[in-house]
Amino acid sequence: MEGDSTRRKGGVLFDQYVALTPPPAKKVDSREPIHKPNNSAINTASGRLVQCLFVHNKREIWSLAVYVLLNATAFWWKCSLFPWDRVVGYGMCVAKGSAQVVVVNCCLALLLLSRSILHFVKAQPFLWRVFPLEHHMELHKLCGYAVFVSALTHSAAHVVNLAYTYTVTNQLDLDSSFYVRHVPLLHPHLPPLLEVAADLPMWTGGFLLVLLLVALPPSFFLSCRRRYHNAFWC
After folding, report:
1. I need a labelling partner for 79 at 20 to 30 A (CA). Which of 18, 55, 101, 141 fits?
2. Is residue 50 in a domain?
3. Average pLDDT over residues 97-112
4. 10 Å Cβ neighbour count for 7?
5. Is residue 125 a contact partner of residue 152, using CB atoms and an 8 Å limit?
6. Membrane spanning segments where (predicted)?
7. Are 179 and 85 in contact (CB under 8 A)?
8. Residue 52: inside a domain, yes or no?
9. Average pLDDT estimate for 38-66
10. How many Å apart are CA 93 and CA 64, to the nearest integer?
11. Please, what is the Cα angle at 75 between 71 and 81, to 5 degrees?
12. Domain encompassing residue 120
């Protein structure tokens, strides 16, 4: 029938054909204001995300904060023993502080390689609730990176200190320098620079730094880590 709303058009009901026909494109007026997202909703979602991350990673965040605080305390304590110097400024503080960070991280890295210590620590239930002991190898690698960066900082600080010392022309500044008076190689008179570079502390420091540069790159390869995983376990 003509007035029947259920009449067919090409095998499809007319009402279905009308429903499937897309509406005409709406013209957008450039003068209409653009509705920006609600900032409060975004801030609320961000706050919930941060809260969720903190809840699920609370032990990791707490342990990382303790680790950073331990290194910062060791660096600050060692720096506080050496005053500002007229020749090298805070160069001696940086050198000694970074050396103390190396000592702290070397101790932590070695403790994490002791099976007896790890077995004792993992047997304490309250420690599991505070520290993520299942990630002890991640802390071991983090200590290795900290040793590498601190050793480079220590060596660079000593090189800069020597360079500043040999550029000073005023003998009064050298005599009043805390750095010069407490380094046996430089007191009571500055020897030639080549003589200082050839002394035993320079050679041992350079040798240890070369060993570190040689040993660290292979640790980035998974095959090397797996092959020699048990080499240093005790």
Report:
1. 141
2. no
3. 90
4. 11
5. no
6. 61-77, 97-121, 142-164, 200-222
7. yes
8. no
9. 71
10. 25
11. 150
12. 58-217
- With 0-12 CB in 10 A as exposed, 13-18 as middle and 19+ as buried, what is 159? middle
Joined together, the tokens standing for residue 153 give: 């900082």
Q: Which residues contact 180 (CB under 8 A, 6 or more apart)?
A: 87, 165, 174, 186, 187, 190
Q: Is 22 helix (H, G, I), strand (E, B) or coil?
A: coil
Nearest to 102 by CA among 50, 155, 179: 155
Q: Is the dihedral of CA 133, 139, 140, 143 positive or negative?
A: negative
Number of domains in the chain: 1
Q: How confident is the model at residue 104 (pLDDT cuts 50, 70, 90)?
A: very high
| Residue type at position 122 | K
Judge whether 212 and 106 are in contact, CB under 8 Å. no
Half-sphere exposure of 152 (CA within 13 A, CB side): 8
Neighbours of 84 (CB within 10 A): 11
What whole-number distance in Å separates Cα of residue 218 and Cα of residue 227?
Answer: 11
Token pair of 7, please? Answer: 């009449």
pLDDT for 135 equals 78
- Measure the CA–CA gap between 206 and 24, rounded to whole angstroms: 77
Residue 153 lies in a domain: yes
179, part of any domain: yes
